[in-house]
Amino acid sequence: MATIQSSGTRTAGITYGSVLFVFKLVAIDVDGTLLNSKQELTERNRRIIHKLVDRAVHVVLVTGKAYVTAKDLMKSLRLVSPQITNDGSLVIVPGTEEILYRQGVPEELAEEVISVAEKMGVTIAVLHETRMCVTGLNEDTDYMATYNDPTPTVVSDLAECLDTPPTHLMVVAYGKDDLYELATSTFKRRFGSRLNVVRSSPYYLEFLHPEVSKGRSLAFVSEYLKIPRNETVGFGDGDNDISFLSYVGCAVAMGNSTEEVQRIADMVTDTCDRDGVAKALEALFSY
Predict the structure, then answer these.
(1) Are strands 83-85 and 204-208 parallel, antiparallel or unpaired?
(2) Model's pTM, two decimal places?
(3) Distance between CA atoms of residues 83 and 27, nearest Å
(4) How far, in whole angstroms, is CA 145 from its chain's centroid?
(5) What whole-number distance in Å separates Cα of residue 161 and Cα of residue 235?
(6) pLDDT tens-digit profile of 179-217?
(7) Coil, helix or strand for 114?
(8) Domains of the chain
């Protein structure tokens, strides 16, 4: 417990002894949170998740990863509750693969984002549940591979991938700080009122249907499972996690999270490279 600190923002003075067994749903971001910086699931994190699942606690991954990328992780964690993938645009039951919720980006908006990205010279990817389309391979797609994103399908025209509304689009400008900041400001100014434009992993900018966010999807899952929000706890590190961390009864920021995430959190745990998720859960559930 020494690694866990209360930030004092929403539930200052949490007494672990009085809330240990309140939480019935644990929502966890994946990259930079459950997985370490090498994209590995440590044995300590795996063990604590197995214990929660065995105790019938609902463990829900809330990730920007496509379902096809995350499903092996779900299987290794023995998850059976509805899972949130594709940055909140898809809620799916692992195993049966029943889709409970899906909301894609309208075709005309997707085409406009693609056009602006191509003119700016940034890499743009179009994603669905099981595929990611790009117009070429480069250092940006190599960077995506470090996050175990789907192997890209190379097409001559991204319009070919808009036959069904994509779950989201993603701009990447790996290692190009100035270009990434310019792209972020440009896209938020141009599309901020029509799409949900969020930063996720470093050098990623993601585009979602305006009604889609990790927070909205977690609220959907909580209502589906009939679990009140004050019985939920969430873990995250990036700005795209703020929407669901603002929803849960207890928000836990990783030690490696952004300043904004730590500011809105109730607690700060250790980093993803030091089993921050496991350390907090061991304290909260008295393991």
Answers:
(1) unpaired
(2) 0.86
(3) 9
(4) 17
(5) 33
(6) 999 999 999 999 999 999 998 878 999 999 999 999 999
(7) helix
(8) 21-102+213-284 (3.40.50.1000), 107-208 (3.30.1240.10)
